[in-house]
Each structure stands twice: as structure tokens, then as C-alpha cells.
Amino acid sequence: MATLLQQLINGLVLGGLIALIALGYTMVYGIIQLINFAHGEVFMVGGFASLATYSYFIPESWRSDWWVALPLMALGGALVAVILAVIMERFAYRPLRNAPRLAPLITALGVSVVLKEAVRLFYPGATAPVPFPRVFVDEQYTFEIFDGTITIGSTAILMIAVSVIGAVVLQTYITKSRMGRAMRATAQDPDTARLMGVNPNRTIVLTFVIGAALAGIAGVLYGIQITNVDTEVGFLYGIFAFTAAVLGGVGSIKGAVIGGFAIGLIKSLAGQYFPGGTQYDLVWIFVLLIVVLVFRPQGLFGEPERVRA
Amino acid sequence: MTATSNAPVLAASNVTMVFGGLTALKDVNIELHEGQILGLIGPNGAGKTTFFNCLTGLYTPTRGSVRLKGRTLPSDPAQVTVAGVARTFQNIRLFPSMTALENVLVGRHSRMKQGPIASLFHGPSFKKGEADARTRCLELLDFVGLSGLDDELARNLPYGDQRRLEIARALATDPAVLLLDEPTAGMNPQETEAARQLILSIRELGIAVVVIEHDTKFIFSLCDHVSVLVQGELLVEGSPEVVRGDPRVIEAYLGKPPEEVQAEVDAYAAESSAERTSIIEPIRDRRPNEGGQQ
């Protein structure tokens, strides 16, 4: 029983992280039908940028106060991620806006390789995992339950909280605000939205910006939870988040969050209970994906694609 | 209805549009004054929708110019909307997964000010702007006769309501000129009459209206001025009476002797004044979309 609870918590922590990244995938896909494979790398760059903020910009005397250091790191990580995403959209994707879908997809893969190699080459010591400072309060809360104990780290609580709050704020923003409506309108019919006075470029850039900001924040959270960052994590978590977005239905905010938590839970529970253990946990994620796609090709909350008249 | 001021709201002069070797529009001139309803008729492929696309900035005319209140129209459709031209579509193009109210609010987009950051923090000015826009958009829904349907998804509305919602959405942009592309296509006589009343009340708001329609009875009973496009050229223009009697129009477009058209028009006028409940209308030919002109 305690093991199950412990694995549920681990799953939620991982799921929260994946959900934060998946939001960026799902929003960009929703608006321009581009699977932005470079989004995982934006997350990774966010992690490195927040580390750089800590190492090079935050004075020694501030580093011990987490409520100063952590927001500054999150700001630094998100800012660099946002700038990167804006440049990416402007120079890599916008020129290909009307090209066949395969062209921007391959460009995205290219951008992802460029980002990963650039960080590996130019960030000091990034050829191996770089240790990440323990900025946040480093407490482990232990509970006695039934037949054992479970522990929750303070960073784990922060991670779940941030991802849930992030998703709720985003959902409200999309449904209740002027720019959110513009984003949905552009996603549904870009030409008509333009004729109704919505500037498509501004709307698309905003989508990239929001996705990147969330990925940048996810980068910081990953760092303080795992206590190191590595250039390889962008690809790995990119794949997790992409799978989460597809599972939940690409284009759906709710779907990305639920997909993210589902993948986190499956990974930790399958690693514990299913045959093969942790070595096979990735297999079960994709088994789940395949099963869902067989019965609901549009994902859990996605809308079936309609051919436009 | 005569024009009140001499300066036209919208003036298209010598608009010519060439696609490759095809001249879709040739030297089309149109002047539209405040509070005027202009009908644009013509056979399929005459260039009516192409002309609309020139008026909304989707196409930049090969030659000639379109001027709105004396200024040349911007080339970006979003800017044209801001300048004051709004339109509806031949084949309905609502945002299907948004509610009726949200569709109208998207039309309001360019008249609202809140930027991305202000929306995030929900300050008092944001709340006020959002509330004002909602009030205005609910009024518009009421105006087109869709009150109480604001929470309904656009795709779930009946066909006639979808057409009206498109009009409400276009009106939300505070247009000086409203372009209606076949507003009564596929409508039954009752819905057509309701649409006629709606367009007349839009004129009362001081908005100039251009209507593309195949239903000649509808055009002749609604418009102050009618222009006939045939093969990209303006064949005849003038008051409904003049156009209706012109033999070239009858030959090129109507293909019927004038007495018959006259009879139809008279019948329509009589029907519109009386209750039109159990009239069995001849099945109107369903017009195929004018391919490639959207």
C-alpha cells in the first residue's frame, strides 16, 4: 500500500513536468498544425539558462534565499526560452508557413539538433551532466502509512503545484481573454480570423511565447528536482511530452495535462508492478498510446479533424 | 433612398484583376454612399466574389484602386477590417467550436485594447474592457435575432441562424461598409424575408451595404442601386427599375422575357406585404460554389 502511494506520488511529479512541456506542443500544433520537435530542446535550454542565471548573475549573498533565487532563475530560464522560441518562429517556421507540412516538421528536427549541439559545445562543462544547485527548500516529508512510509520532497510538491496552476491559468487565459479568443479563432480558421481583424503573426508568436515560457519554467523545476541538467534531457522529455499531447488530443489544453499525468503515472506504476520492471516502463507508455489511438485516433480530448469546406 | 453626402464611403475605380492569362475583373467602377444598399448580381463566374476579395484586401487589384473614405485600402485583410470593411461569406465560415458569443467577440477583437500581459493579470481596466465588449456583442446578437443563443456552439446552430451570426460577427467590427456574399443562399422564403428586414435595419445604423445575390427578386426589392457584372465587366448599373428593364441584363443574366420577371417581382412584392405562409416555391437551382474564387 505504501509502495503504491509512493509510486503514485512519483508518477504525479513526473507527470506534472511532462504536462508543462506538453502544453507547448499542443498549443503550437493547435494553431499552425506544426509538431515543434524543437520544443523539448527549448525546455533543456530553459534549464541551462536558469543555471546560468544562478551561476553568473545572482550574487552569492542572494543564493541562499530561495524566494529570491528561484523566481530569478525561473525568470531567466523562461526569458531565454521565450527569446529562443521567437527567433525560431521568425526565422525557421514563418518562412515555411505555407509550405507542405513535412518541410516545417523536418526544420523542427533540424532546429532541435542545432540547439542541443550548441548547448553542448558552448555551455561550460555541458558535455557531461552539469550539477544543478539545490535552491529550493530541501525538505523530505515522511509519513507513516499502513505498512510502511512514504516520502514527499518539497520540490515534488512545488512541481505538481506549478504544473496544475500553470494549466488552470492557461485554460482561463485561452477561454476568457481577447488574445486567447484570437488564438482559438486562428487555430480554427486562420483566413477568416484575419478577415475579422485578428493579426495572425502576432497571435502565432504569442502561442510560441507562452509555450516556451512554460517550458523554461519546467526546465528550472527539472533542475531542482533532479539536481543536474544534461543536454540529452530535451530529447527524452520532448518525446514524453509529445506522447502526452498526442494521448490527450493535440490541440487540447486539458488533454495535454491529463496526458502528461497519465504518462507519469504509467511510467512509475509499470516500473513497479508490471513484468520487466523499470527497464520496460517506456514500453508500457507506448502500449497505452497505441491502445488509445486505436480507439480514439484524435486522442482523449482532441476534436476529430474535419475537412474544411 | 438617395445618398446624403457627395463623398462616397467606398469607391472602386477601374479595378482590374488578372490571374495569369485570365482577366477576372475589367475596369469595374463602383461608388457606395453612406446608408446605401448596393446589389451586385451576375451569372456564375462573373467575378462577384473576386470583386469582394479585392474590397477586403485578400486580393490586391492588378490595376485600379479601392478607396475607403478617400484612403486607399491597406493590403493586409486584418488592417482592412480595422479600417472599416467587414464581410460575410458565401459558404459560412464561422469558428465552429466557439460559442455564438465568442464568435462575435472575435469580430470585436480589433476594437478592444487589452494586450497579452494585461489579460494575464485581469486588472480593472481589463475587466471593464471585457465586460463592455460582452455587452456590445450581446446587443448585436439581439439585433440579428439570436438573443438567448449566446452559449450555443456555432456549429450546432441551424443554418439560417449561422448566417445571422456571421452578420453579427461582421457588425462587431464596427464597419462603415458591410459586404454580404449571398446572405440568403439556401434559405426558405420566410428566412429570406427576415434577412431582408435585417439588412434594411442595418442600413438604418448608417452602414453602407453591398449584397451579392442570385435571387433577383430579393435584390430588386432590397437595393437602392444595382450593378450587373458579366464576365468581369460592369454591364449595367442603376436603380432596380432601370436594371430590371434593361434587355442586355435579361439576355445575359436572366434569360427570360421581361414580362415574366416583372410578374415574379410583383408577386414577390405582394407576398412580402402579405403573410407568406403556404406558398410552394419552385425549387431554386442550388448554385455550385464559384470554384477558386473564395
UniProtKB/TrEMBL annotation, chain A:
It comes from the Bacteria. CDD domains: TM_PBP1_LivH_like. Keywords: Amino-acid transport, Cell inner membrane, Cell membrane, Membrane, Transmembrane, Transmembrane helix, Transport. It is a multi-pass membrane protein. It is found in: Cell membrane. The chain crosses the membrane at residues 12-35, 65-87, 99-115, 150-174, 204-224, 236-266, 278-295. Belongs to the binding-protein-dependent transport system permease family. LivHM subfamily. This is Branched-chain amino acid ABC transporter permease. It comes from Actinokineospora xionganensis.
TrEMBL record, chain B:
GO terms for molecular function: ATP binding. Residues 271-294 are annotated as: Disordered. Gene3D superfamilies: P-loop containing nucleotide triphosphate hydrolases. Residues 10-256 form the ABC transporter domain. It holds the Pfam family BCA_ABC_TP_C. Keywords: ATP-binding, Nucleotide-binding, Transport. InterPro entries: AAA+_ATPase, ABC_AA/LPS_Transport, ABC_transporter-like_ATP-bd, BCA_ABC_TP_C, P-loop_NTPase. This is ABC transporter ATP-binding protein. It comes from Actinokineospora xionganensis.
